[in-house]
Amino acid sequence: MVTYNKEQIKNLQELDKKHYLHPTSSLKQHQENGPKRIFTEGKGIYLTDVNGDQYIDALASLWNVNIGHGRKELGEAASQQMGKLAYSSSFNNLSHETVIQLSEKLASLTPGDLNVFFFTSGGSESNDTAFKLVRHYWKMKGQPEKKKIIGLERAYHGITMGATSATGIQQFQNMTTSLAPDFLHAAAHKTNCEWGDKNDSDYSRSIRGIIENEGPETIAAVIVEPIQGAGGVIIPPDGYLEAVRDLCDQYGILMIADEVICGFGRTGRMFGVDNWNVVPDIMCMAKGITSGYIPLGAVAITERLRDNLAEVSDDVLFHGFTYSGHPTSCAVALKNIEIIEKENLAAHASKMEMELIKGFKYLTEKHSSVTKSRAKGLLGAFELFEDREQGIPFGPEKMAAQKLVEECLSQKLIVRSVTFGGTNIIALSPPLIITKEEIEKMIMIFSDAIQTVEKSLR
Ligand code: PLP
Questions:
Q1: Which of 6, 154, 187, 452 is the most buried (most CB within 10 A)?
Q2: What pLDDT does residue 315 have?
Q3: Which residues, at least 6 apart from 244, have a Cβ–Cβ distance to it below 8 Å?
């Protein structure tokens, strides 16, 4: 392990403060305090910082380090590919062996006939690609007015202009004065409304209600995360995704699943939609596709959709990133998927779900503020309430969830709070290689941290 002396650490902190604009971070706090931690190494579920302190990375960094940190095989795959063919473009129907192999591999994993892949550098680009593809599709089919896209409230789809516009979390939209047009938002998970229950007072806010109000001839697609991640790990009730699939079929609307977090074993199945046997028309992926070792995103479309597009459009598909199908990213993805399959990480995540639930039960019994815990595979959350019996939340001024995240960090556990809309949600998604013993260790740290925070809040 590389060690840093006090002067080196101070220097890094000052340079960070001076030159680094951090993503999704408080600028004021950064300018006052500098970076919170500076990490240098990762191994398994752990990250080590410049002081040599080891932290449990209970969010797999950004829900993405599925195979865990420090897997040398991925570095070797990247090095071999770079030595052989570091880069070549896929524009104008040029190709290379590694992207062909990755496309074939993904086709063997995705459900239904989602067998055709477009590559990007991440989740936002994948979603923006899907939005442009569906609009292009309807335009080519002679229905250019079919262009609106319906997303869900509390959904997170990324930060490019299209993805920000599809995102249903106000704070991300407030960042810009104008959004992309023709994005609408529906209330999440109103299963009965999606089946057509007009007596529900939320009907007009449901996807079905919005489609009927706007006119199906104006709606291009619906986008849903199988499980909402950044919105607070919100698991839909059984039957919801099936209802959305049926609704889309009924009205001739394309269904996009945003699998950026759920994909590649996170929820105990290879893809989130596999939990409900739903096959979308388009599936957006990123994060777990390389376990974060190198940037890569992908958009799966059905063979049907590709054939339709090829039939109606003999023009060039004017959409491509310089790094679409980057050879090194593809080589790393192939090795990452090989590890996920060889080590049965989706099945392991499903098994560990029980341990997570057991841990949440312990926390709920021991701490009066803990409630509403849930998990699917290794994607889980619990909430903090001032009075859980009466359903009284902690007021935002108490910053309960933020305080718990800070206390966990000081106890060397990295988790995330979700506080949009007055919630106090603690989200976790550890690397899929986490063991029962490591989950128990994580729960014990949570328990200590919750006790400290509860004391400070009462
Ligand atoms: N979609 C979902 C569900 C996500 O959680 C994220 C990122 O957290 C994105 C899209 C955006 O991905 P990226 O940050 O790679 O652009």
A1: 154
A2: 81
A3: 194, 207, 222, 224, 255, 278
Q: What distance in angstroms lies between residue 163's CA and the mean position of ligand 1's atoms?
A: 9
pLDDT at 437 over 90: yes
Is the pLDDT at 313 greater than 80? The verdict is no
Given this model, what pLDDT does residue 212 score? 98
258 Cβ contact partners less than 8 Å away, ≥ 6 residues apart: 123, 127, 155, 157, 223, 224, 225, 226, 284
CA pair distance 377, 426, nearest whole angstrom: 16
Question: What residue's CA is closest to ligand 1, atom 12?
Answer: 123
The pLDDT, as a whole number, for residue 93 is: 96
| pLDDT at position 226 over 80 | yes
Average pLDDT on 259-271 reads 98
| Residue 123 Cα: closest atom of ligand 1 | 12
- Strand arrangement, sheet containing 39-43: 39-43, 46-49, 54-57, 413-414
Tell me which of 120, 128, 260, 273 to substitute to probe ligand 1's pocket, judged by most ligand atoms within 8 Å of the beta carbon.
Answer: 260
Exposed, middle or buried by CB within 10 Å (0-12, 13-18, 19+), for 351?
A: middle
How much is the pLDDT for 384?
Answer: 98
**What are the tens digits of pLDDT across the range 174-192?**
999 999 999 999 999 999 9
Mapped to the 3 state alphabet, what secondary structure does the chain carry? CCCCCHHHHHHHHHHHHHHCCCCCCCHHHHHHHCCCCCEEEEEECEEEECCCCEEEECCHHHHCCCCCECCHHHHHHHHHHHHHHCCCCCHHHCCCHHHHHHHHHHHHHCCCCCCEEEEECCHHHHHHHHHHHHHHHHHHCCCCCCCEEEEECCCCCCCCHHHHHHCCCHHHHCCCCCCCCCEEEECCCCHHHHCCCCCCCCHHHCHHHHHHHHCHHHEEEEEECCCECCCCCECCCCCHHHHHHHHHHHHCCEEEEECCCCCCCCCCCCCHHHHCCCCCCEEEECHHHCCCCCCCEEEEECHHHHHHHHHHCCCCCCCCCCCCCCHHHHHHHHHHHHHHHHCCHHHHHHHHHHHHHHHHHHHHHHCCCEEEEEEECCEEEEEEEEECCCCEECCHHHCHHHHHHHHHHHCCEECEEECHHHCCEEEECCCCCCCHHHHHHHHHHHHHHHHHHHHHHC
pLDDT score, position 1: 78
Q: Which atom of ligand 1 is nearest to the CA of 287?
A: 15
Report the nearest atom of ligand 1 relative to the CA of 295. 15
